[in-house]
């Protein structure tokens, strides 16, 4: 096995739900040792408790949501309400480079694991707190699940079919968006520490990172005095630009986007309508935008009797961008994604092999791989406590009896 | 504007960005806004994002594209025709001095731009090259092309959006803006820093291949597992898994409301004045409430209509009920929480009115995030970089200019 870019970096991970675990997942993919701190005493991580469960059998180690976003991490169980467990956390922090949490604002202080305290344990510690609104301001304690943050940050008001009301966006997008930006913030802090020797605290607001990717909408309003128009799959200038019904079961579609007149000509030829190039209604990008309803109808007439893959292959071969609308099943069984090694199948002790989304990048000198499936609840407690803190087997058994390891 | 600050942990990092549109530009922006020295290369006609808008009053102008301005703050801009050998030679000299190259030129186009991955390792062993492409550099579809709409469909997001739809005739729906491109950009940025960290201890550069399709397929909540754990194909059609979960109408706008936990629902019922209907079996738990969402929504209509959005938002959140305004851009810009946190940045781009740009994606304790420099005008820093930093003479530069290389 080759080197990994974050070999030797250790993360103490208090995150739960999705945004936090998505941030530390990227570090685990890059080779950091990520130790999740969980407990069996109070509430389980919510993603251990919601469907889908493997073969519909409920169990904390059988939940797909948890198992996807915690690949390659370790799990220890400690009852943070016990003072002894807190002391052990402080000892562990001395062995860690990064601490991550995404409790509500202020909760980490209440639990005794706020940044000022952890910095006493390790002066150069890097800590990130991910919360809905950030650690300050009048809304800091408000509840903000991903979809709630989507509404707040403007995604619903700008997304929708032509002429429709505001629409939701299908996934809890602000979570992975915050997680990916969180991974960036942690790598930036690590870069800073490499150069200066100093750690730091990072306050990441899911709302604010979501607004970072809304820049063009905010500018549209400021530059034009108008709210962005909900225009479905359509583009400001490109046409055709849409998702079109194809042959097959009722829900098969193909996306097609044409960005210039040359591509438009290629599309006409591919559709077997070379004469269409001369049709004035569609001769220029402006004309195609003006007559987009008629244009979309014309294209649908061609796509609806053809297979989506046949269309995509044909159009890609003539330089027109096109791709089927992929479902979870399409993705999980896709030959290209399998050949690239993106889809991962690792043997999990309770549920055997399942397909998971793996690592969306490849590095030439530090090949990254998913090293292990998501951990069983508490699977690494003994290993972590003995190897990092030097506890004996007997001591750990006693801590279990005392309700500290729990 | 004077030469770049080359001090500090970030100022000493030199990045060359060579791309078009959103993904590479956003990745490099994340670095530039921390003080990294970024040179953005553009072809003689400029980055296509200059043509995309939004523009002031809707009038296209390559120096006033809102999207371009947002994505290219803090960078210096150099025009170089990489399709010509003299241009590629100058690129080579810039890369000799650079730490990181970020680009999103697709695999089939790389040779003509002098960006062939296979040549980098021998020529620039210390250079970190991050390439973003739609389908990655390997696999049967490595040479396929795409854009935001394609990524949203190929990555599996569009097929799930808007979600809980009862309209099978409506296509999978892309979210507002360039979200998939943004995600590929964030990945590129944190991967560049991970590789930089690795290089610090080994001296080795490397190539990183980022697949935009895979970035999206890796963030679909638990949808892939719905298939691999339970054999279920998911889509944008069907019902909410739980309720309440909907966009409702208040007196002066729309609000998004969701109750994930039972106690949140109980507090909502109490807040509504304990109406009798809320105790009907139709609404006995969150799953059943999801199945009867239309009835629930209808029964809540009158109550919601009595409220103004911001009043209901604050009152409900005070009671720990997760709701949020469905913000339009105008409301988002004046939001109290973001104002208190000092999030938006007043920004001046020459030739444009004062605008507010999104602030930092996270608040750092140490690392200095700031918008110090406006986006470059086309070719603004060509002479500065080529003459003052690469040492070209005025005669040489004028010759290149006359030949249309710069």
Describe the structure.
The complex is a heterodimer of chains A (406) and B (406). With 406 residues, chain A is of the alpha/beta class. Chain A has helices at 19-29, 64-69, 83-93, 107-111, 115-121, 146-153, 155-158, 174-196, 206-212, 215-224, 261-270, 285-290, 292-303, 308-317, 328-332, 335-339, 381-389, 393-401, and strands spanning 10-13, 33-38, 74-77, 98-101, 126-131, 200-205, 241-245, 253-257, 321-324, 343-348, 352-357, 361-363. In chain A, α1 (19-29) links the parallel β1 and β2. Chain A is built from 18 helices and 12 strands. In chain A, strands 3-2-1-4-5-6 form a 6-stranded parallel beta sheet, sandwiched between helices. Chain A has a 3-stranded antiparallel beta sheet with strand order 7-8-9, with helices on one face. Chain A has a two-stranded antiparallel sheet with strand order 10-11. The two termini of chain A are 34 Å apart. Chain A is elongated and about 85 Å long. Chain A has 2 domains: 10-213 and 340-401, Rossmann fold, CATH 3.40.50.10540; 241-326, formyl-coa transferase, domain 3, CATH 3.30.1540. Chain B has 406 residues and is an alpha/beta fold. Chain B has 2 domains: 8-219 and 344-402, Crotonobetainyl-coa:carnitine coa-transferase, domain 1 (Rossmann fold), CATH 3.40.50; 245-333, formyl-coa transferase, domain 3, CATH 3.30.1540. Chain B contains 17 helices and 12 strands. Chain B has helices at 8-11, 23-32, 66-71, 85-97, 117-123, 148-154, 179-202, 212-217, 223-230, 262-271, 286-291, 293-305, 309-318, 329-333, 336-340, 382-389, 394-402, and strands at residues 14-18, 37-42, 75-79, 100-103, 128-133, 206-211, 245-250, 253-258, 323-325, 345-347, 355-357, 363-364. In chain B, the strands form 3 sheets. Chain B has a 6-stranded parallel beta sheet, with helices on both faces. Chain B has a 3-stranded antiparallel beta sheet with strand order 7-8-9. Chain B has a two-stranded antiparallel sheet with strand order 10-11. In chain B, β10 and β11 form a beta hairpin. Chain B is elongated, with a radius of gyration of 25 Å. At the A-B interface, α2, α6, α7, α8 and β6 of A face α1, α3, α6, α7 and β6 of B.
């Amino acid at each position: 096995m080759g080197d990994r870019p974050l070999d030797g970096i250790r993360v103490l991970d208090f995150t739960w739900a999705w945004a936090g675990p998505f941030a530390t997942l990227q570090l685990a993919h890059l080779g950091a040792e990520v130790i999740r701190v969980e407990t069996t005493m109070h509430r389980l991580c919510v993603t251990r408790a919601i469907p889908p469960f493997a073969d519909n059998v409920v169990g904390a180690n059988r939940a797909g949501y948890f198992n996807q976003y915690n690949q390659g991490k370790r799990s220890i169980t400690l009852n943070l309400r016990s003072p002894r467990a807190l002391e052990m956390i402080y000892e562990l922090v001395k062995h860690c480079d990064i601490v991550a949490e995404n409790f509500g604002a202020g909760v980490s202080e209440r639990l005794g694991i706020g940044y000022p305290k952890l910095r006493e344990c390790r002066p150069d510690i890097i800590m990130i707190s991910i919360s809905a609104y950030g650690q300050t301001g009048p809304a800091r304690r408000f509840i903000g699940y991903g979809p709630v943050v989507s509404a707040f940050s403007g995604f619903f008001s700008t997304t929708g079919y032509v002429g429709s009301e505001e629409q939701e966006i299908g996934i809890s997008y602000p979570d992975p968006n915050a997680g990916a930006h969180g991974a960036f913030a942690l790598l930036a802090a690590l870069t800073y520490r490499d150069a200066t020797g100093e750690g730091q605290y990072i306050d990441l607001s899911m709302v604010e990172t979501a607004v970072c990717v809304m820049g063009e909408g905010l500018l549209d309003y400021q530059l034009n005095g108008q709210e962005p128009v909900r225009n479905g799959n359509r583009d400001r200038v490109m046409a055709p630009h849409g998702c079109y019904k194809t042959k097959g079961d009722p829900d098969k579609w193909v996306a097609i986007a044409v960005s210039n007149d040359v591509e438009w000509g290629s599309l006409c030829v591919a559709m077997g309508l070379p004469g269409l190039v001369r049709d004035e209604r569609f001769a220029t990008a402006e004309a195609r935008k003006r007559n987009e309803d008629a244009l979309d109808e014309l294209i649908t007439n061609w796509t609806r009797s053809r297979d989506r893959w046949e269309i995509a292959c044909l159009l890609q071969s003539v330089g027109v961008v096109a791709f089927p609308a992929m479902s979870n099943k399409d993705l999980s069984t896709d030959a290209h994604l399998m050949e690239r090694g993106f889809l991962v199948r690792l043997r999990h002790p309770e549920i055997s092999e399942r397909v998971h989304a793996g690592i969306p990048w490849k590095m030439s000198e530090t090949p990254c791989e998913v090293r292990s499936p998501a951990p069983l609840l508490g699977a690494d407690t003994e290993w972590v406590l003995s190897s990092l803190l030097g506890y004996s087997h007997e001591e750990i058994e006693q801590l279990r009896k005392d309700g500290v390891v729990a | 504007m004077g030469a770049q600050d080359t001090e500090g942990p970030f100022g000493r990092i030199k990045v060359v960005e060579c791309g078009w549109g959103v993904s590479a530009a956003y990745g490099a922006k994340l670095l530039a806004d921390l003080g990294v020295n970024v040179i953005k290369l553009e072809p003689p006609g400029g980055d296509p994002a200059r043509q995309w808008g939004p523009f002031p009053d809707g009038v296209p102008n390559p120096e006033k594209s809102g999207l371009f301005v947002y994505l290219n703050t803090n960078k210096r801009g150099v025009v170089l025709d990489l399709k010509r050998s003299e241009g590629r030679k100058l690129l080579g000299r810039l890369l000799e001095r650079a730490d990181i190259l970020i680009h999103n030129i697709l695999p089939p186009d790389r040779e003509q731009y002098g960006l062939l991955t296979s040549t980098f390792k021998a020529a620039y062993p210390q250079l970190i090259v991050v390439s973003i492409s739609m389908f990655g550099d390997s696999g049967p579809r490595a040479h396929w092309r795409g854009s935001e709409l394609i990524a949203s469909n190929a990555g599996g997001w569009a097929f799930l959006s808007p979600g809980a739809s009862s309209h099978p005739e409506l296509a999978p729906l892309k979210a507002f803006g360039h979200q998939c491109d943004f995600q590929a950009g964030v990945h590129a940025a944190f991967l560049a820093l991970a590789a930089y960290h690795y290089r610090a201890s080994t001296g080795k550069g490397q190539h990183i291949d980022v697949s935009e399709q895979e970035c999206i397929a890796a963030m679909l909540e638990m949808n892939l597992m719905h298939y691999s754990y339970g054999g279920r194909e998911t889509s944008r059609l069907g019902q909410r898994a739980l309720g309440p979960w909907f966009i409702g109408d208040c007196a002066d706008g729309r609000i998004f409301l969701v109750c994930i936990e039972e106690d949140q629902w109980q507090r909502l019922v109490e807040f509504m004045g304990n109406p009798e209907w809320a105790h009907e079996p139709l609404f006995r738990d969150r799953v059943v409430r999801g199945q009867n969402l239309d009835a629930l929504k209808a029964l809540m209509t009158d109550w919601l209509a009595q409220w103004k959005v911001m009043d209901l938002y604050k009152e409900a959140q005070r009671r720990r009920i997760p709701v949020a305004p469905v913000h339009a851009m105008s409301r988002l810009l004046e939001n109290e929480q973001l104002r208190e946190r000092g999030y938006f940045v007043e920004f001046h781009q020459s030739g444009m009115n004062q605008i507010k740009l999104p602030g930092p994606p996270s608040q750092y304790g140490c690392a200095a995030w700031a918008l110090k420099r406006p986006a470059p005008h086309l070719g603004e820093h060509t002479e500065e970089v080529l003459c003052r930093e690469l040492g070209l003479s005025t005669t040489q530069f004028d010759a290149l200019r006359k030949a249309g290389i710069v």
